[in-house]
Amino acid sequence: GDVFSVLDSYSPSGISMLLILLIPAILIFYTLGWKKYHSTTNINNMTKKYPSYKEILKMDEKQAKKIFLERHTVDMESLLEEMIDHEEEMGSFKKTARGEIKPAEQMILNVFNKEKSSEIIDLFKKIDNALKDSEEGAPNLINDAFFAKFASDFHELFRKR
Q1: How far is CA 19 from CA 2, 26, 34, in A?
Q2: Which pairs from 117-125 meet CB under 8 Å and 24+ separation?
Q3: Cβ neighbours of residue 86 closer than 8 Å, sequence gap 6 or more
Q4: pLDDT at position 112
């Protein structure tokens, strides 16, 4: 019963022959099989075709939230462009404001304004970074703006259905 007694049955040349065959086989499997599988999985996630923002708004709530979160995570820039276009076309986010728009609310609305978006996002990034340094669990203002607009647009369309 000793594990090493198995090695006694092999001659030194037999063990070296086994290693000579086994090591290249493992390297070939890794380079052709394992590595290829993982790289195509990542590429598929990056090139996955997502529904447009308008299509997401027409989905049932559970599916819309799931797809919106995926797109927000993977494809935030093009999602922002579509959300800006939607806001310019519909003005839906601005319509949800009750009464006079306060400066803090206007900043969030400006995230979805073509002329002011990049400037306000840069400002929000600076604020987010300052808050991260001073508070644990500080809010992410850019994400909050995205989710607020999505919730506003989704529920506005939901009421019209």
Answers
A1: 21, 10, 20
A2: 117/80, 117/84
A3: 53, 54, 92, 153
A4: 86
Choose among 130, 110, 129, 131: nearest CA to 121. 110
pTM of the model: 0.62
pLDDT in tens, 93-119: 777 666 777 888 888 888 888 888 889
User: Which residues, in sequence order, are CB contacts of 53 under 8 Å at separation 6+?
Assistant: 79, 82, 83, 86
Please say whether the beta carbons of 71 and 81 come within 8 A. no
Q: Which three-class secondary structure state does DSSP give residue 24?
A: helix
Residue 127: which of 140, 113, 111 has the closest Cα? 140
Any idea of the CA torsion for 61, 75, 85, 102, to the nearest 10 degrees? 80
Alpha-helical segments (H) within 34-100: 35-47, 53-57, 61-74, 76-90, 92-95
- Residue ranges for the chain with pLDDT beneath 50: 41-43
